[in-house]
């Protein structure tokens, strides 16, 4: 018998699928964890890059803040000296604009209630509303232009320092010439009171050039947002001072509000976008660096880790499959193939087949030993069945012979009995005639008496023959009783065979218990391997080798469990075959019981024949008594001599016929007894 899709192939397929699924799951978990780790590492590197860029921007702003702070400090000093003039303040602003090359301009503004104007009377550097607002700006040739400007006190550059008493970097704006500029304002205090606002303007046109030269991670880019979420250094030209409308706009707003960085996935071309808020000393506001980290910066380490893990997993898968295939072929497939061939031989009743692997101490050895017991029991059961079948055939033949002889005997006895009864009737008629003729004659009474005695003797002979026939019927009953006892013995033997087959089923059940014990041990081994794996995981890198061994132990435990399950299926098949054998023996037991019932029925029929023969003997005895009565009354025969002679002739003839029939009856009885002896 060729077995396709054997245990080795199924086990290898199942193990391969399990290892592959585990490998895929491990790759997924590894990829997920690697992605998180790489993303976290890259984010930290991006934060450092953003800090560097923020520091560069902060340096530019800090220089401007320092310029504005120095200018307001100089103005404060002049005002505190009490000898300042308006022209002196204008000169301070001009000197500040000239001293710092990165400045776009320098300016001052009196308070809306004209505090400086009150302190320093005059009309120099006033706007159309009469407020002191000197403003120096650099022109295209590098020189300075002087002007004044108007304000109403609601502007951020004025309102912020007035409210906080600190310097402030305003929201950048575009000048009429299209320059991107921001103002650094600071309060001018005198005696603890703000009397004016001083400030410098710095052009931010250099920021896109400076930040555009930065390429973090090779192909990344750095951009800049203002406090209001507008582009200062946009991703594309023309978006200056346009609101941010990219991914995570709400996150950007929150980052500018709380000063915490945000990492936004799903940027352009899959890039990771970092929003890094920052501030510089004296800014008292928050800007945000926007850095796009290329997707390949994160993907490449992940792919490398996955490729390394997949290669190792593939090697492990191949080693596991080869090991399982070789192990199952050697330890399971071949022994089970031999066991299957042995079972096929036993099914074909080839009981001389040698059962291999009996000396093994594992489940295969247990199966081989069970097959050996099954072979021996099957051989014994078959021999017993053959003996019982032969005995049953003999008993059936014997019963058939007895039945046929009994039927023939019954017919002949019935015929002879009827003839005897008829002759007895004739004798009764003749006796009546003799009784009537006895009154007519007395001379022939002696002859008639002799004839009557002869008739009485004949009737006695008939009674003797009837008693012999009764004895033969009783012998038939005894033989039938013996047949019933033989059937009862066959029932006992069938019950013994059923007990042996039940014992075989018990052995198969105990094998199932052993298999359950092995399954329990495999489950405990699996649990220990799981605990070992957990402890190895807790041990970290030092426990990796132990974790591999624990995984192998767990896998072998699973293999043992699946193998014992397959053996349990085979044992269940053996138990099913044993159950069929029990059913067959029960059928034989039922047949023997029916044969015993038939023998009992035959015995009852024979008993009825015995009763009938008793009745015949009784009737013959009554006939004999009647003949004696005829002899006692023979004196009456003498009154009819002529009738006595005729009647005597009739009686003599009837007696001769009766004698012949009696002899024939004796012969039939002897023949019946002889046939019964031969049948028994």
From TrEMBL:
One GO biological process term: signal transduction
Residue ranges of every copy of the Methyl-accepting transducer domain listed in the record: 416-659
Start and end residues of each HAMP domain: 330-383
GO cellular component, as recorded: membrane
Pfam family, one: MCPsignal
Keyword Membrane: yes
Family: Belongs to the methyl-accepting chemotaxis (MCP) protein family.
Protein name (database record): Methyl-accepting chemotaxis sensory transducer with Cache sensor
Species this protein is from: Methylobacterium gossipiicola
UniProt lineage: Bacteria, Pseudomonadati, Pseudomonadota, Alphaproteobacteria, Hyphomicrobiales
